[in-house]
Design a protein that fits this description.
Blueprint (H helix, E strand, L loop, with lengths): L5 E3 L8 E7 L4 H14 L3 E6 L3 H10 L5 E4 L10 E15 L6 E2 L4 H6 L12 E2 L7 H9 L3 H9 L10 H10 L3 E6 H6 L7 E2 L1 E2 L6 H6 L5 E9 L4 H10 L2 H9 L3 E2 L3
Parallel strand pairs: 2-3, 2-4, 6-10, 7-8
Antiparallel strand pairs: 1-3, 4-11, 5-8, 5-9, 5-11, 5-12
Helix pairs in contact: 1-10, 4-5
Length: 263
């Protein structure tokens, strides 16, 4: 589970140069890990990670000068001008279930599998899809990743038996408690929120969603995390970006199920 907002650093924010970060929920713990290490290695610096904002809330907070950096799971919209967005982190993205052996599925069959109310897992357990809100970035990501998926999701929304998870945290919490669940999620969230013993990735066309397979192209499905900041980033934001691209930053990313997408 993700905790409430925390301030990371050895000195109080009144004495420190404070970097304030917020955005998409699935990256919250990742940002806490990176922030703690960044603050520990940079004197007179603290990092505050604000949970629960979502991509849009984080971007709005940067526009309002409340945050220095937003982590977004979607591109900027035309109305969100005056900001810079770069893909800084990538993590494998796939399908997980509470079923201990969900098996393998072909990319071309994912949409039909989702939309079929009679679908079952290899052991005969019924498939229980959990959806996300229409405006949620993962809804768009699923729709873009698998052929016919956008139409399948809209078809499923007409069913009254399909639950909707409001947040990234709700998504995995519901998936872990529903027998035979099926949801989309990132490897980073699975790793950082400790769901790997409760939820299990399907393989897609025989490939597992591992960092090695993402790097080699064997597993091509990923979720990008965009860092969004002022058009002219502050020196503190620049230092944090440099840290992400450093050997220490990359090590933290890998241990958290992610890869640096910069440098």
């Amino acid at each position: 589970m993700v905790t409430t907002a925390v301030c990371l650093g050895s000195i109080s924010s009144s004495q420190a140069d404070t970097l304030r970060i917020g955005g998409t929920g699935s990256a919250t713990v990742l940002m806490q890990r990176l922030g703690a290490s960044f603050a520990a290695s940079h004197a007179d610096t603290s990092v505050e990670v604000i949970p629960g904002l979502g991509s849009s809330g984080g971007i709005a907070a940067v526009l309002d000068n409340v945050l220095d950096l937003a982590v977004s799971a979607r591109p900027l919209k035309p109305a969100e001008q005056g900001l810079t967005a770069i893909v800084a982190v990538r993590t494998p993205y796939g399908l997980v279930s509470s079923n201990p052996n969900p098996g393998d599925i072909a990319k071309a069959e994912v949409a039909a599998f989702y939309a079929n109310p009679a679908a079952t897992w290899p052991d005969g357990t019924s498939v229980r899809v959990v959806l996300r809100p229409k405006s949620e970035s993962d809804t768009a990501l699923l729709g873009e990743t698998f052929p016919g998926m956008a139409a399948a999701i809209e078809k499923i929304r007409a069913r009254i038996d399909v639950p909707v998870a409001a947040t990234d945290q709700d998504n995995l919490e519901m998936a872990s408690t529903i027998k035979g669940s099926l949801v989309g999620t990132s490897l980073t969230q699975m790793v950082t929120e400790n769901y790997q013993s409760q939820l299990h990735f399907l393989t897609i066309d025989g490939a597992k969603p591992t960092l090695e397979n993402l790097e080699s192209g064997v597993y091509p499905y990923s979720k990008p995390y965009r860092f969004v900041f002022a058009e002219e980033p502050s020196p503190l934001v620049r230092r944090f970006m440099d840290f992400i691209a450093s050997s220490e930053g990359k090590s933290i990313l890998r241990a958290s199920g992610s890869l640096s997408a910069t440098r």
